[in-house]
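TA notes. Do not distribute before section.
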Amino acid sequence: MSDVAMAVEPRRPQLRIACEECRRKRIRCDRGTPQCMSCATSGKTCVVRQNCPRRGPKKGYLKTLQNKIEDLQSRLNEAQLDEQQETSTTETRNPSPSLEDVNSDNDNGGCMDNIEVQSTSTATPITFSDIQLWTQPLEVQFPIMQPGPWDCIENSFPGSDFPSLDHTPEPSPFSMGVGLHITPMMHNDLDQLYFDRAYMFAPILQAHRYRSWSKQPNKSKHQTCLQLAMWTLASSLSSQFQVAVRQLYSETRQLLRTIESEEPCHQVSIEQAQAWLLLAIYELTCEDYHRWMMSAGTAFRLIQMMRLYELDIHQSPPTTQTQEQYSVQLSPLGQVQDDWIDVETKRRTFWLAYTIDRFTSMVDGLHMFFDDRMIRTLLPAPEANFASGRPREMSFLADIVRDADLERPDDDFSSFTETVIVAHICGRVLEHKQRPLTRTLDTTVEFCRRHRCINALVAQRIMILRMHASVEHLDPVLTFTALAAHISVLMLYDFIESKPLGTKAQATQVTKTLHDEYKQQALDAVADIPLLVVSLDQHFQTHPLTPILLLLGARFSQSHPGLNDASNKLMPCIITALQASVNLNRLSQGFLQLIGPQNDIYGAFT
């Protein structure tokens, strides 16, 4: 076909628009006239519009939407500017806090309640080194709704609108601070997260008793603080709630400070102590070491004020006593005692604080807060009894560790109770090291006797824990406890090796005898520790204080190079375990810096 023919070729006529009925049915229209085939078949009227409406948003809609975005952005900038002005005003009023203000953790909020921790040039360095905080999370609005109105904290957060006390089928979201809203489903998820992942190392709440008040709109401020602390710790152990953990943490601290400023000092509740304790665990593993020390100190003091270390000093209920009988007993002061679950909750709160005190003091040989000679509180009951509320008579810690009878049958304690016993032994090892060493013959004999007694206690617990290790699914808490017992063996051996008892011939002979006696035990512990570390890596749940034990093992390995083939494998195993948990536990990040080649490692056992 020529170019002229192509130029004069008539254009194809445009077909008419599809009818409305075919458009509605989303079928192909044959555009027949006066009716299309589809309409003729179905008996519908075939209507064809000559002018179709223009697609897309209406005219001016995009401009209106852009104006709304600009208005919201300006409001957000104004709110941030007001917050910065309030912060600068607070800093101007308190330019240089005194030592008393720091020890009281700044009652009016201060820098300790801000999400970002401001470092000061006068801060006292600690042996953990100045570990910087993690990168701050992005500012996002986390849609959380509360299952019921929190009238108990409506005065604690000025500027927040709280709903009325009337329940509605669809509860409207309420705002906690900046953008925190909690839905009933998220409420249940956070509760379940705590009991699934945090309860194993912090079993201080009975699930049924907690759920009886957790969704009540009229719960107390202390209960609200405890709930927020539980959610903070649970969120740090999950992936879906990481975006809200810092906001939950900030709200928990703010409400705890509000309670302290509003209520008299003598009004202390168990929920308040538990909230500080859980918050301290979160700060130790996810926040700042200095702040953890302040929060842990507050929790320990509250526990001391409530005298939880001597709950059972005046009574010890028999095993045949029922819960109803136990709940109506009168104390020596004539006051009605709490029921068994409440008393057991207080016992567990104390023992959790006790274990944290012992294990954290092992890092740098810090002074231990709780004195074993003052403890008159029974050991925790088994989990089955605590969950069902069935009382069971337990022993005192002093009765369990009074003598090391290796032939005594296993007491079948819970994993939490085993952790308490091993924490006590670790405390005795630390106290044994801290006691001044004199060079007389009598004190040398006493030192050897004390050293052998502690070593026998460690051997007894290791034997019992090995019996539990034969179970197919080993409890991660028992694995942590077994690792702590083996670390105690290394500490005892290193103490004998690095602390000679004197220069006299008899003292030198005693030192050599002890060294030869415990060297094989140390070698066995060095061989077992990598197996325990590998076992910990196989658990989804890991005790948050595990990096402390790994650091102590690494220090022993560095101070005893070439002890044997097993000792050469110990350090790589520990490094691998710390690196695997660096994103889950901030202690691992700091400890990797301490044991790295660029750091000057100091002896943990000297």
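Switch to the second chain here.
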Amino acid sequence: MRKLTLDLTARSQLAKEFARLKRDHTKALQSNAARVILGSSVVRVFAKGSKADMLSLLSTISLASLRSVESEADFKQWFVEHTATLERCLAEKNANNERVHPGLRWGHCTKVLALFARQIVNSPGLFDQAALSKIEPWLYVPVDSIVMNRLRQCGVRPSFSRIKEISTAEEFFEVQNLLGEVASGAGVPRIWFDDNWGHRNREGELMAA
């Protein structure tokens, strides 16, 4: 078998490439986290080009700003500010998109940001166990059809039946506060309600609770 060899120039170039990857490793992990959560089930309602815009925005969010939150109120402020930024990012391309209005910000943007926050907080290369333990109880549940169906099965009747109908902060936080209160009594984070995505049958329907 032929042995792969490198001349000095190639070795130098390869070393420079690894140095670049080392420098940009955290950014790469953050970008990959954004790609993971922006699957077809999330982006299909948005206008053409929206996915690229969201990838760019999510890949540049300051993780230090999230690591520095020290209370649920701090996290809520971080979340509200970034949903506003995400809405501005999507507004022009989706101005006439009936699939996302009137719930562009409090329905669809909150879903994207909640998914992203969960993904990065649970990424070992981005957040350590101490940061995860601190922030996980404050994470919001990404509200979608799966979550809404399970809520109804549990006897909860939100004021909305589709994501795009979540048009106000009050509607979004009413559900999150309820989930947080009951989850706290059960000794688990409310974000675990999103585990219902793993409780579906082959047809994608929720199995009995």
